[in-house]
What we know:
Shape: elongated
Structural class: mainly alpha
Distance between the termini: 97 Å
Helix content: 25-40%
Low-confidence stretches: 1-39
Strand content: under 5%
Strand order of the largest sheet: 1-2
Largest sheet: 2 strands, antiparallel
Number of strands: 12
Amino acid sequence: xxxxxxxxxxxxxxIASVALVAGASxxxxxxxxxxxxxxxxxxPNEAEWIMSAHADAEAEAFMHWDEExxxxxxxxxxxxxxSPGYMDFIGADGTPAGSVENPAPIGTVIECxxxxxxxxxxxxxxxxxxxxxxxxxxxxxxxxxxxxxxxSKLTVDEAIADANVPDLDAVMPDARFIxxxxxxxxxxxxxxxxxxxxxxxxxxxxxxxxxxxxVDECVDCHDSxxxxxxxxxxxxxxxxxxxxxxxxxxxxxxxxxDYDGDGNTTEGIYHEVxxxxxxxxxxxxxxxxxxGAPIAYDPNAYPYFFADDNGNGVVDEGEGxxxxxxxxxxxxxxxxxxxxKDPGAFAHNAKYIIQLLHDSIADLAPxxxxxxxxxxAGHFAGSEEPWRHWDEExxxxxxxxxxxxxxxxxxLLEEGVTIGQPPSNGLMCETCHxxxxxxxxxxxxxxxxxxGAQLSTDDPDSNLCINCHQGRESTVSVNAYIAAAGATDExxxxxxxxxxxxxxxAGATYFGTQAKGAYEYQGKxxxxxxxxxxxxDTCAECHDAHSGAVQTQACGNLFCHGTPDVTGIREDNRxxxxxxxxxxxxxxxxxxxxxxxxxxxxxxxxxxxxxxxAYSGRAYPYFFVDTNNNGQVDEGEGxxxxxxxxxVKATYNYQYVQKDPGAFAHNGQYIIQVLHDTIADxxxxxxxxxxKMIRP
Length: 696
């Protein structure tokens, strides 16, 4: 082979790699030496690359196999620990893509040609260790081929299944710790899509973490050659970030809770993750003592978990590999170790990691978990049903995307229509803010309600909220539905089903009869928009914009209401519900009306519609046949189907108030009018005493 002179190290490595791609059977890497760079043009980004971990030829990641016989990187490791192995895996060397066919020679690192070739440029997907393929990744697919780990939930489950022990606390003979491997950033970032962490069967998990446009891919945050974090980008939105270490102090506005239970809700999300990890380690140690096999962890010594023979909580010389693995301990240890092997986990997908750690603690120590927080407030509760409902379909349909995806509302405001959108972990900054990092809100002058009414709170920020918090039905749509079914007899069963207003229709409640969100009976008059006091008269003035929490202290501190307990507030001394109590809060007046309405609905369903009925606010379709007539939905009781027009209206209003739990505050007297009239309408067919009730 000819001697190569007057070329930079990086250029020589490129030539060597190209030779492999071109079909040369071997390249003598010993000939590649820096000799005379005086006549060499500068290789782009060489200075940055040469200082990176990808170029560190003396690192264990590239020297581990130097003393092996033969000295080569095996096919199981070559993909990520050599340039030829990576190119073999992606098919850049002419071999089949998706597998490594040949061991790689020692002495290579991650070079220019590793990522800069046609096969790498064409990558758009990645197959994770779980076997799940994630598509549509674009250029970051190059990074994710390696930064994905080597294990998953399925790996742990398979090991437990193979052990075939009788319960979760039985020691598994011959079981070993399962290591996700190093820098599995893609597994963290993709969250529940990839099953990289050990996900327990009952709860759901956040999926791919979405940051903001332009700073949402691997190379948006990391320099692709030096691998360093672009800290100056963080500072644009996160004041105070001057160094990489400062990133640990970042906490997004959507992270409102004290996840680790230390009482601090302003610390960086990194510290919340750290606190939870410490709690998990304590739970593992206590569990180990409980099964007679104390455990200790050392992040720098393979196999990481050791038998803590002297019970001091640390790994001491002579303490051997931990061997008393139970299924419960193996799951917890996997989740404990996973974020430690992705030191940027708190930035890559903190909420997913929080969920993994919380659930492992809950499995080992339920009492401890009860003091911790797993999920965020509704807008950011990415693991909850309003956001995860469409995961199997892979798209939130246009009928739902406005309120159940991060991108649906901006699309509606910009284009005037809704279309299918990708599932998300809740709202993003860009859902409500039209400029980052200025964080200006999207301007909304008025909002169309399901009744067709065009309304405005006179506050664009609050109008933004009620694009979603308005429900999906109204008096108008319920009447139209009944008419379309040809149902003219109010008490005749047939051809109808339950109409669901949907959730948190606070905006419709607030506007009362102007929005006609609740079902309003013909011939009755109803209150309109709630007339509160200035400065506390719109959504954004009473609720925290990110957590949704009510600013209760303001209620009690402005000399208007002597208590921050909003359920105890009332402004009218009339006894609306007729229970003889005039000092209780308006919330309790509304509650009594709801109780009477439910009882009356049950009476009407059994004695007029001919089928007993029961309600569950947590189980779709909410109303069921009450086979045993106990007023509750029991296992095996099916969907209620004996609907009459009168019952459709009554159940619609009952559900309306159930699904706006703040209705008493949003427009309490309007809601009492609606409930009063619903009871009265049913009372034309069944006996109900409203003699002491007062309609506002």
